[in-house]
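REVIEWER CHECKLIST
Item 1: Sequence provided? yes
Item 2: Single chain? yes
Item 3: Sequence as submitted:
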Amino acid sequence: MAAHLLDGTAVSRTIFGEVAERAANFTARQGRPPCLATVLIGDDPASHAYVRMKQRRAGQLGLESRRVQLPAGTTTEEAVAAVRALSQDDEVDGILVQHPAPAQVDEIAVFEAIAPDQDVDGVTMASFAAMGLSANGFHSCTPEGIVRLLDAYDVPIAGQRVCVVGRSAILGKPVGLLLLARDATVTFCHSRTTDLAAQVAEADIVVAAVGRPELIRGEWIKPGAVVVDAGYNPGNVGDVEFSAAAQRASYITPVPGGVGPMTIAVLMGQTVIAAENRVRETAGRS
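Item 4: Structure as written out by the authors:
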């Protein structure tokens, strides 16, 4: 069988339309657009490309995009100070710290400088706790995008066996938490799991988020399983051996065009929600 594609580009287009409408309504009411501030540390070309893409999309949707560029030699203290300054700005609704930061910067400390109500990328401890406790708060963008993509194609989650390959704090762990909250049975694996092939072979849904090209072999996929490849490696190669996996899976994400557009869609949507929440909270205090 040949798998159907989980087309993140098509699904994100619908979300972008909703975001643009809400952003326009917000701007009409408040006299300013929702504002996303992006903090970029250093000179990594891929990071610069990602930030430009996010800025371009924000502009297309009617959001203001504010870019803070810090030099490669920036210290943790300097990065924290820059983020705290943005958190104190009443016209900044969401803050994104572009990952990765240079080695000398403590990313966790910089993330924690983001006020929880501005953490539209879902990277703070408060957001992680909200995902784990199914409480109100922003979700990590890629994990939330994955869940929305599965929902868009009516992929059942409750009762399914899920294998998450990857354990990062911004992707592997939170996507497992979100799927667990939807009543899936979740197994976390990684590049050092000794029986990785056997774990993948048992899964109804495989989420690959380990950052190693084609680590997940096509023959490991259980016939009819759903494969979500959140990896992106040089040459437009994901973490899954796409051609072979597509012959066994029922649904599979392309790379690119699968998870990536959903990440951007969630980021933009959560920025508008942050703006709306801040207005409501300000009105409630007056």
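Item 5: Key structural point noted by reviewer: The chain is about 45% helix and 15% strand.
Item 6: Recommendation: ____
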